[in-house]
Structure formats: C-alpha cells, structure tokens
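So, does this match?
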Amino acid sequence: MIVPAYNEARWLPALLDSIDLARASCSFGPGAVEVIVADNASTDGTAELAAARGCRVARVETRSIAAARNGGARIARGKFLLFVDADSRIHPRTFDAVGAALAKGTFVAGATGVTSERWSPGIVVTWAFMLPMVWVTGMDTGVVFCRREDFLAVGGYDEKRRFAEDVMFLLALCRLGRGRGQRLTRLRGVKAVTSTRKFDDHGDWHYLTNVLTLPLSYLVNPRAAARRVERYWYEPGR
C-alpha cells in the first residue's frame, strides 16, 4: 500500500492504525502487505513518524502528488499496487477484497470508493453531484488499485499534471483493459473514510463554487487558474 504524504504527521497515525487492523485480518497474512509512505519533502516529521511505525519510506523531492505516488511505486515489491491518501482510513476487509478482485481476469483496476467522516448539506450536494459521473465512468476514489505490470504499462501517474492525475491514471488503465476485455471495478462494502479537511478549510460548498469552475478558469485566465491549483493542492501549510 502506497501513501503519498506531504506534512501529514497529524493525519497519518489514524490511517496507519486502520492499515494495521486490515493487515491483521487479511487472509494472506500481515506480512503479505507492505506499507510505503512516499514522503513528498515534508517538514513536519512525517517521514520519521512513518519509519517509527514500520513503514518503508520513499523520499520524493519533487512536490507533486503524481510524483509521490510514482516514487512509492518504484520501491514497491508486490505484484499489486494500492494507493490511498494519508488523511483517509481504510476498511478492515480492504486487502482481501482487492486481492479477490485482481485475482479475476475481469478487472484491470478499481477503487473501493469513500464515505465522508462528516456530512452537511453542502457535502451531501457535492456527493450527489459527483455520483452520476462515478456511475457512468466506473471510476472512483478511496483505495485505488491495479497490477504492477499494468501500472508500468501505462507509465504510472502523469507527473506533468498538478491535479486530476488520478482521473487520467484510471482512464489510461481503462483504455489498456478495454483491449483485453477488462474493465474497472468499484468494490462494494469496503469504502474508505475520507477526511473533510478541504471542506473544513474552504467551506462546505466550496467544491461546487470553486473546484468545478477550474476548467473554465483555465480557458479565461490560465495563470490565475494555475495559482488557484497551487493554493488548493500544494500550499505550504497543507
């Protein structure tokens, strides 16, 4: 399991606790799952915390979510690659569910989906807005997984992208699988819990009023849109 992390010392312990629980209940045995924290030049002790918890640490200097995910994948030794954000908590049956899905030849990759750690009218409306796209495309978030060979075949995450690299990664895997009669899968019953820190910081309606307007902003004023991306996903205090 690969965890991209930039200054995540506050959030990482809860994720690692949930991973430990899932490893303990994994039918393959705890030793079958390695945990890699891809430390993206943190300054808050994230790497030290991860090492103290027994994780392998990949130091990734390029400040990019895509680069961090790729950096973790480079040192991974397993045949399956799983990616999860540091401010999440995974379901106890995650590893068995992913193993069962990838053992079939039907799926090229997939995701567990997520549920929110809290709800409000703004968050509910945001969820409702996004769900049709998830249903139509088959792409989801949470714990994203694929086979190592397929990760390499599509070139991993596109490090030129400052955002939406996860969407493009799944699209690339979808195209790869289509030629083999495979598709993406959304697992049932093992959703990860995602934090609402972006909603806490920017307001419960911000996704609809800010993030979803980015494509239009790039058409009107690319430089201003790029600055918005940096503030939202890469600001130093995140």
Q: What stands out?
A: The radius of gyration is 17 Å. The mean pLDDT is 94.
